[in-house]
Amino acid sequence: MTIVVTGATGHLGRLVVESLLARGVPATDIVATGRSVEKLDGLGVTVRAASYDEPESLRAAFAGADTLIFVSSSEAGERRVAQHRNVVEAAKAAGIGRVIYTSIPKADTSDMMLAADHRATEILLLESGLPSTFLRNSWYIENYDVQSALEHGLLGSSGDGKISAAPRADYAEAAAAAALTDNPKQVYELGGEPFTMAELAAEISRQSGREVTYTDLPEAKFAEFLAGVGVPEPMPVILADSGRATRAGALHVEGNDLETLLGRPATPLAAALKTALA
Q1: Strand duo 98-103 + 154-156: pairing
Q2: Which of 82, 129, 155, 183 has its CA 20 to 30 A from that of 144?
Q3: pTM score, two decimals?
Q4: Other C-beta atoms within 10 Å of 276: how many?
């Protein structure tokens, strides 16, 4: 069985390839794709250059594959949906037998701005007729700059909303497990140990021995702050909206889907922060 991983030159995609290898998939059965393929030197798997913006490169990269692990684009809005449409059409043209797509929690019902792109992609996959599994990943622990927090504290707009974050490596391992599962569910809502931003600040303080506080801002003020420190458009508005949605539970994942796929508990917050602080 040949497994293609898109976006393998990114953080999550590379970890997915490494997780497949760790689970015993022969390197000859893995195809890693991306734009900057020189980043994939040393993995030992088949490497094919492909861009979400170039449909022909995708069709060539997917040729002969059985399973596609479709790591979502790092873009947002209409461009991401257009890129994802290219991936879905290429997968269908290549006769892919199964697609594993990295989505976002509650993509079919969430009013978070980021969820709209994932909801559109899930619909594209459903309408394509391709057998698909949606891995609805909550936030990555790596989204938080822990080292910067030691100097400047944490800011956000999520209030007391719970965030079921986990390290990227956990989500990557879950994607590999889903690809190797004979009868996967169509939807997995994936998240780790839930915490509020204040609880995150408290755990960083406990482990570092330095006082770290969380400052909660109104959505518009947080967007203004992000723009002021150089976050490019349209991300300030999108990230501030994510905080707003988090207040209402958009990133709080219940159930044990992540644990089920991993075959173990998700990495606890304390352990993830210990690594981040090392």
Answers
A1: unpaired
A2: 82
A3: 0.96
A4: 17
| Token pair 């079919």 in the structure block, residue | 108
CB 235 within 8 A of CB 76: yes
Spans of all domains in the chain: 3-142+167-191+254-269
Q: Which 8-state DSSP code applies to residue 195? A: B
CB of 71 within 8 A of CB of 16? yes
Contact 57, 49 (CB under 8 A): yes
Q: What is the pLDDT of residues 213-262, one digit of tens each?
A: 999 999 999 999 999 999 999 999 999 999 999 999 999 999 999 999 99
**Domain spanning 3-142+167-191+254-269, CATH class:** alpha beta
Condensed to tens digits (0 to 9), the pLDDT of residues 123-172 reads 999 999 999 999 999 999 999 999 999 999 999 999 999 999 999 999 99
Return left, alpha or beta for 135; rule: phi > 0 is left, psi -120 to 50 is alpha, else beta: beta
Alpha helices in 96-218 (DSSP H): 113-128, 146-152, 168-179, 197-208
Q: Tokens 């997915």, residue?
A: 16
Q: What is the mean pLDDT of residues 257-272?
A: 97
Mean pLDDT of the 183-202 span: 97
Query: Given the structure tokens 């009868």, which residue do they identify?
Result: 183
